[in-house]
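Need a sequence for this fold. Nothing fancy.
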């Protein structure tokens, strides 16, 4: 079973924190099925993209 992981790009001067990650998890968990909510949240500055603008998901799967 693969558990979902979320990659979040912050805007408006927000800073990443554990409190914000927990708030996001709670928000999503209240709105979708419990098994779908992300167990891990990673804050990133940008998502890796190809020349055509598609997200390079394989790069997100690589260990950090």
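Here you go.
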């Amino acid at each position: 079973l693969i558990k979902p992981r979320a990659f979040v790009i912050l805007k408006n001067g927000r800073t990443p924190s554990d409190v914000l990650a927990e708030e996001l998890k709670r928000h999503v968990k209240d709105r979708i099925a419990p098994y779908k909510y992300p167990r891990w949240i990673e804050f990133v500055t940008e998502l890796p993209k190809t020349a055509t603008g598609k997200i390079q998901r394989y790069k997100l799967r690589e260990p950090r």
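For context: DSSP finds two helices and two strands in the chain.
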